[in-house]
Amino acid sequence: MVFSKVRLFFVCFLTFIVIAAPFSNSVQAEEPVQLDYVALGDSLAVGVTPTRSVGSSYSDFLAKQLLQINHLGTYTKQYAAPGYTSTQVLEDIQNDVRKKNMDGSEDTEGIQKHISEAEMITLNIGANDMLAVIDIDPHTGTISYDEEVFAQVLSDVGKNIVQIISLIKTLNPSADIYVMGYYNPFPYLPDSEQPKVLIALEQLNNVINTAASSTGATYVPTAEAFNPNGKEYLSNPQDIHPNETGYLVLANSFWKLIEVKDAEVFTDVDLEKWSHDSIQYLVKKGIIKGYGDGTFGPDDFFRRDHASQMLTRSIVYNPEVPPAAYTDLALENPAFPMISILSHNGILQGYKDGTFKPENSLTRAEMAIILVKAHGLEGSGEGTFTDVPNTHWAYDAINTLAEHGITIGVGNNKYAPNRPVEREEFATFLERALHQ
Predict the structure, then answer these.
(1) What are the tens digits of pLDDT across the range 103-130?
(2) Helix (H) or strand (E) segment spanning residue 168
(3) Cβ contacts of residue 333 below 8 Å, gap of 6+?
(4) Cα-based distances in Å from 288 to 328, 336, 433
(5) DSSP characters over 375-399
(6) In whole angstroms, what separates CA 9 from the centre of its chain?
(7) Model's pTM, two decimal places?
């Protein structure tokens, strides 16, 4: 596959990320699995913005995330196109279309070659098929469509997606295929029209889900995460394309379901250990690793810089942020880019004296704060633990974790807020937060 300028930019931008090394100076680096990634679909895979320019798409953010965890081989979205229908994607694969590479050079391989070499393929298609048969009155915002025509279009979308996935599997039986469901593109229409929009959207997503599931692909729902804040993500009322925040929501919908490697057997984490399943879940997603000698170190304390690495591997952020300016944080620190990302997004802050103390152990109170902020969790404010008074600086966050079932404390109705977090504790809490 062609290494595009996009990949080269990612490499330059993330030069100081040393993800291959797990969370210990004594760890031996392991050779990570490299995934070639192909993004297929319409304008959302391209990255069309609310102003009709082209920015970072959900697929770009996924590629950056794979690079950050050191699992990106190559990446291309050259076969995605604005306005594409399911028929056009199918025909491109059938005809082995060639389109210019992302760096502008000529495509000498074709779409079938790229698909045959990919370990990961994302597909978002079907929305333009549906939109072509929906009419919206520009003056009243009234939506209408012929139900028979609409039903036929949905049937065609389902058949086309089945054929697309079947062709992909013929070319590459081992590729992981992720197929996106759609969000509500019309949150600005009158309230009276929203039920019609949501019914049409549900029908489309059901068709996409059925087609994906029946062919062994993974369906990626986006409506639940996107729709409640649709106006925030679709910042131009006259356009259906997301802003950067919206594309990150879509990317995270994919990221929750993506696995990059197989589980590992750790000699100090047996099947009966309470944290076993959580650790293996994060291992398969490339979020956490062992020490390279067959152990995981579940009881080891977790450092603040290691927590930053782990958190940014679990959630997709835009990595292009200003560098952190802590007096004790060197640019060469492997966690420097991650700490910069979390600081920029207000997730994990330093201390009043201008330091970050990257090697300090993360406390259970600090862990509660960053998990609640990172995952946008909300609680009622009711107290749970006797050792966390309502005057405690992390009172709300700790009790929010309890309300969401992420923690039950350490026993005897206590939370131990000042105790350092162990590796298996952070892994378990993070895995539970990711499933909220």
Answers:
(1) 999 999 999 999 999 999 999 999 999 9
(2) helix 147-171
(3) 16, 305, 339, 358
(4) 25, 17, 15
(5) HT---------TTS-TTSTTHHHHH
(6) 20
(7) 0.91
